[in-house]
Every structure is written in structure tokens, then in C-alpha cells.
Amino acid sequence: MDKVCKEVVIAHCGLICSACGAYLKSKCRGCNSDKPMFRKCPVKKCNLEKGYRTCGDCTEFDDVRRCKKLNNFISKIFGFVFRSDRIAKVERIREVGYDQYSNENS
Length: 106
Description:
single chain, mainly alpha
């Protein structure tokens, strides 16, 4: 049986864009595209300014929970509504690296 390979698109905050309903319905092409869901995302802006792929590359915070761009009231509501945990995702990227993280989410 052939395995269907799909590209894993990782958002700046560590979430998997390619697993999102908006991405799958072509309403969003991920935060690295010209058609992101949230054009003024402070996490994306910070990553681009610092040259990071994701918050997993950040060296400013040993504990990403201290970052108020990534971990704030709005992100907590987002996480609750969409049942997502950006902090855990970023920590996993730091722990295993991008290749393994992508493999785990493909």
C-alpha cells in the first residue's frame, strides 16, 4: 500500500498549520504564506525579526511560558477553544528538533 506523504507545515508558534481546518479548506495557507489567518501575529513578527523558524529557536527564554507574545490571555483562550497547546509544541520542538517533530505530526 502506498503511503500518502503530506508536507508538515509548522507555524511560528509550533502548531501544525497543515493539520488545521482552515488550512485544509484553503482559507489559510499557514503563517509563512501570503495568506495567513492572523496577519498581525506578534509571534510571527518576533520570529521574523530575530531570524527564527519558530519559538523553538528562541534563546531569550529558557522557559517559553515567560514569553508574553507566545503565552498570554488570548493564546490561552485560543488553546482552550481549539484544544491546542502551543507551549507544549514549542517544548517538543526544542526537545526533539524539527525533523523528528515533523515526523511525529505527519
